[in-house]
């Protein structure tokens, strides 16, 4: 992987020399949106509080790239990174490399988090990581443009979204040729798995693999969902959408060049920045239904302590601090990162900055998990097979029915090797 890894030292205010027991803890941080800055600031507060030192390991933006890099480090039993930032679908894949936090973190702290997210971080009774923030896919829209074109509310179905996006796009392109109706994550990576799972579930096509491990993707509703998404390309979505990740979609929407966008909650705070062309003009709603239900993929990131860390006690203390209510509140207010601590959804300061945290609370609590639980260590292969099949449909190489039939066979082969 040709990625320059930045190591940034965040020294404690108290000189290390004056604290004989001070240690250096290396923390892996993501860099999407405001992630890196907020991670550095939180780590610096812990360093100042404890007299320790923190080095920041800047991870790649794309989750697939990040996972590959982490797997290399962990397979080598490297002690270079003490605390890893883990995607919600990774605990089953990486659990053997992480310290069991059960018993090392007080039960009251653990129980303050959403139970479902704690469950997602628990593998064979082992608490692999503590939740840091949760995510669910959301529909962002331009409130001013909906009003301008006579629409009273956000679309409730994908059909409505397509009709509204087409009308707004046609009007706006008279003066802005680069304007798009709808932008989303169409690049072949984990982000596409998230978007496409939302389509499939919303059409009633299941969750790729069900909770018992049965492969369910080969059905007419799943095929219809993929064909519907393919119909948006070069219609309400630009041809280039098949290369977009979260930041590419956000850049277009925030520059005022799209009516609708699918993204995670972090995009809200950035959209309200002074440099945003759409500040004060953004609405947030549940993603549309395909006829079955609204569906948002469960996302989110956790903090785990490496088995190979030489400073496990300090690393666990850092994880407890960053995942605690004080830091989660700061991140919610400054970056619109959804807390995993239930009480913060009633915090007036958090809700003042992120009103949709309250109005869309059910979206976050009923988000659809990717099938990482039933597929365990094979989840990454399952996800790559799924996103590749979806990509083939989006790029016109296959129709939905042929793609889900082929995918069924590919997943059966993966399952045949055990999951």
UniProtKB/TrEMBL annotation:
Signal peptide feature range: 1-22
UniProt KW keywords: Signal, Transport
Origin: domain of life: Bacteria
Family the entry assigns: Belongs to the bacterial solute-binding protein 1 family.
PANTHER family (alphabetical): MALTOSE-BINDING PERIPLASMIC PROTEIN, MALTOSE_MALTODEXTRIN-BINDING PERIPLASMIC PROTEIN
Name of the molecule in the record: ABC transporter-binding protein
Organism expressing this protein natively: Deinococcus radiotolerans
């Amino acid at each position: 992987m040709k990625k320059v890894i930045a190591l940034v030292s965040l020294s404690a205010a108290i000189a290390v020399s004056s604290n004989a027991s001070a240690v250096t803890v290396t923390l892996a941080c993501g860099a999407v949106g405001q992630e890196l800055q907020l991670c550095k600031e939180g780590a610096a507060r812990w360093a100042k509080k404890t007299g320790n030192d923190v080095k920041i390991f800047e991870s790649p933006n794309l989750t697939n790239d990040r996972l590959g890099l982490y797997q290399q480090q962990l397979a080598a039993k490297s002690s270079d990174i003490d605390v890893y930032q883990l995607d919600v679908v990774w605990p089953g894949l990486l659990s053997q490399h992480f310290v069991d936090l059960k018993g090392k973190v007080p039960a009251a702290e653990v129980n303050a988090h959403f139970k479902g997210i704690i469950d997602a971080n628990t593998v064979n009774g082992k608490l692999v990581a503590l939740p840091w923030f949760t995510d669910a896919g959301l529909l962002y829209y331009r409130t001013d443009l909906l009003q301008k074109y006579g629409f009273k509310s956000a679309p409730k179905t994908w059909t409505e979204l397509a009709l509204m996006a087409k009308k707004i796009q046609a009007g706006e392109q008279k003066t802005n040729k680069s304007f798009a109706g709808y932008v989303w994550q169409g690049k072949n990576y984990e982000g596409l798995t998230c978007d496409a799972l939302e389509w499939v579930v919303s059409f009633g096509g299941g969750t790729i693999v069900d909770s018992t491990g049965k492969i369910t993707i080969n059905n007419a509703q799943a095929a219809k969902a993929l064909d519907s998404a393919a119909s948006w390309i070069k219609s309400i979505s630009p041809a280039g959408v098949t290369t977009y990740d979260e930041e590419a979609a956000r850049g277009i929407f925030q520059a005022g060049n799209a009516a609708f966008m699918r993204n995670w909650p972090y995009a809200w705070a950035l959209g309200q920045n002074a440099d945003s062309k759409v500040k004060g003009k953004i609405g947030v709603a549940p993603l549309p239904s395909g006829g079955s239900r609204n569906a948002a993929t469960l996302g989110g990131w956790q903090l785990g302590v490496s088995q190979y860390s030489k400073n496990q006690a300090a690393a666990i203390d850092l994880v407890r601090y960053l995942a605690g209510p004080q830091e989660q509140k700061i991140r919610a207010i400054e970056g619109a990162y959804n807390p995993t601590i239930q009480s913060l959804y009633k915090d007036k300061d958090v809700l003042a900055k992120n009103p949709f945290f309250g109005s869309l609370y059910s979206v976050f609590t009923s988000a659809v998990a990717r099938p990482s639980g039933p597929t365990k260590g094979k989840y990454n292969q399952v996800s790559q097979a799924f996103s590749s099949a979806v990509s083939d449909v989006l790029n016109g190489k296959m129709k939905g029915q042929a793609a889900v039939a082929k995918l069924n066979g590919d997943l059966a082969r993966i399952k045949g090797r055990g999951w």
